[in-house]
Write a structure and sequence with these properties.
Strand content: over 45%
Radius of gyration: 18 Å
Strand order of the largest sheet: 1-22-19-24-17-14-13
Shape: globular
Helix content: under 10%
Number of helices: 2
Distance between the termini: 48 Å
Largest sheet: 7 strands, antiparallel
Number of strands: 26
Length: about 290
Amino acid sequence: MRKIIETTTAPRGHWVGDGFPVRSLFSHMSGKSETTPFLMLDYGGPYHFEPAARPRGVDVHPHKGFETVTIVYDGEVEHGDSTGRGGVIREGDVQWMTAGDGILHKEFHSQDFTKSGGTFEMVQLWVNLPAKDKSAPAGYQSITDAAIPSVDLADGAGKLRVIAGNYEGAKGPANAFTPLDVWDIRLNAGKVVTLTPPEGWNVMVVVLSGKVSVNAEAKLEGPAVARLARKGGGVVIEAEEDAKVLILSGEPIDEPIAAYGPFVMNSEAEIRQAITDFNSGKFGRL
């Protein structure tokens, strides 16, 4: 079994705009890059919103040099961007947005969710792009719940949705620039699952809710994260109670990271150029 390098629990939360109460379970902004190719994961909610007349959220802002992955568990998010794409991300849906060479976008609660109110819960994951792809054209993948394969785990342990990558022959619909797996798992209390990510990949067990034991070594109560060694075999997760878990594994992008707010590049010079490009309107209009 793989050695557990570290475990972390969710820090105190903060608001992104007025619609997203989040806790950053890990972040490249700390100056670390051990989670490569994954940069950051914000867990939003669960939070109850009262009905409102005006959608809550975040207005137009830029990104460059990476991809954002939004997974909605409860509630609805409405997206629009400078590629002309957009739509409503509903329960179970995923939005995979490539910022690439630069994009403007906005994220708000949907009109229907704004009017009705209710429980809101989501994850936003940032995935790095290698240097050769940081100038890729901006893009958008709208992935519905129905398009995501769901695999029954052995011995009634639960279900695994393959958002990206592969699991036992099931292929996720998301297209990524580097090899990675994003698995969304529901584990039943008292059950065990053994997973075998490729050797050499970074692996993180993200527990959003519930209690689990990882490799009979670390006990996690969500929201919390265990980061595992790149080599060493399988990952054994035992659920002490019903649990909601994300497994993130990927081939490392071992390149320098220079980050400034919504820009993730490889050098400070590239950050300065990104700021210049944004200010000169090269990210398009929204």
